[in-house]
Amino acid sequence: MSETQNTDLMTLTRYVLEAQHSHPQASGDLTLLISAIQVGCKFVESCVRKARLINLVGVAGAINVQGEDQKKLDVISNDIFINAMTASHKISSMVSEEVEKLILVRDDMKGKYCVTFDPLDGSSNIDAGVNVGTIFGIFRAKSDIEEENYTVPGNEIIVGGYCMYGSSCNFVLSLGNNMVDGFTLDPSLGEFILTHPNMRIPRRGNIFSVNEGNASYFDEATRKYIHSLKHPDPKSGVKPYAARYIGSMVADVHRTLLYGGVFAYPADSKNARGKLRTLYEGFPMAFIVEQAGGKASTGAKRVLDIVPTHIHDRCPVFLGGIDDIEDVERFFSEYKHSLSPEFRN
After folding, report:
1. 134: closest CA among 211, 74, 69?
2. Ranges for the Fructose-1-6-bisphosphatase class I N-terminal domain (predicted)?
3. Taking Cα atoms as reference points, which of 166, 110, 105, 175 lies closest to residue 134?
4. Residue 5 falls inside a structural domain
5. What backbone phi and psi angles, to 5 degrees, belong to 322?
């Protein structure tokens, strides 16, 4: 007997509208902004899917603010999101990984939100067909001096999300209230459908995700912690953790969110402040993981307690289940002397 077709689908648009209706004071501006981001994600997904066919693979011939070769899809994805969010008339300014300076909006198009985003995380792997994604965070614009809206602690973020482009297109969103929900794009409808309601990260997993190619640069705390995962005390009865590392933050965090364990991109002797960007990688992903019942730490402090001083600041990141990240913090407390001074407290 065939399954009955579900005719009462919870689309992303319906989901955000219902969230709006649950707050009588809501103006609907945030709903429209998220809708604009959703459209941008669909546009980028289409470009990623057809990239090889329409010659969008390879480098664009420019270097971004991070000193990285810009891929053709980096440039296109960045333009897509800037245009989509600007047209919503709901943002005051934006910060993008691909743009050195703050992205300002004309006065007649300004809204009351600020958005930080990485338009195409993992794009260095795009030519190999590896999953890539978009990461975004939304903040309220509280100052008329736009730069001041980004030198605030991460706990002021109000929405965090990412969209992963791969064998399926997955949109994961948190509006706060300890809720994270996942949606999958139905190509036949052109809509994101709720498929992963109330995502919760296990307190402890059995997978660790870190680029061990950098192991010789790790500080002592990181080395000792990773060794403990690979070589647990035989008397404890604990099995070694499995290693899984894709090299795309969106894909690695998505797996960690589903199955638990630890995603790590620590500081090291090459990158004393860490490699991931605080505003548009660290904060949104930390927010999502915390809202899903997990924990996000630099090893010494909560990621969302960081106060960036520049829009492209970086930070060390350990994301995962509560028990796993508390293990990380115990190692960092024990080997505090090995850390860079700025991350000891």
Report:
1. 74
2. 10-197
3. 166
4. no
5. -55, -50
DSSP label at residue 261: S
Q: How far apart are CA 178 and CA 287, in angstroms?
A: 10
Distance between CA atoms of residues 316 and 303, nearest Å: 8
Give rounded-to-5 percent helix, strand, coil for the chain.
40, 25, 35
Residues 282 and 232 in one domain: yes
Please identify which residue in the block is written with the tokens 């709901």. Answer: 90
Look at residues 168, 194, 220 and tell me which one is the last residue of a structural domain: 194
Q: Do residues 90 and 114 make contact, with C-beta atoms less than 8 angstroms apart?
A: no
3-state secondary structure of 35: helix
**For the packed helices 29-49 and 12-21, what is the interaxial angle rounded to 10 degrees?**
170
Pairing of strands 113-121, 132-140: antiparallel
Both structure tokens of 128: 């190999």
Which residue, of 132, 167, 194, is where some domain finishes? 194
For 288-311, the pLDDT digits (tens) are 999 999 999 999 999 999 999 999
Residue 4 lies in a domain: no
d(CA 237, CA 182): 35
Question: Using one digit for the tens of pLDDT, what is the confidence trace for 234-249?
Answer: 888 789 999 999 999 9
pLDDT of residue 82: 98
For residues 242 and 262, state if they share a domain: yes
Q: Tell me the percentage of the chain whose pLDDT exceeds 90.
A: 81
* Residue 81 scores a pLDDT above 50: yes
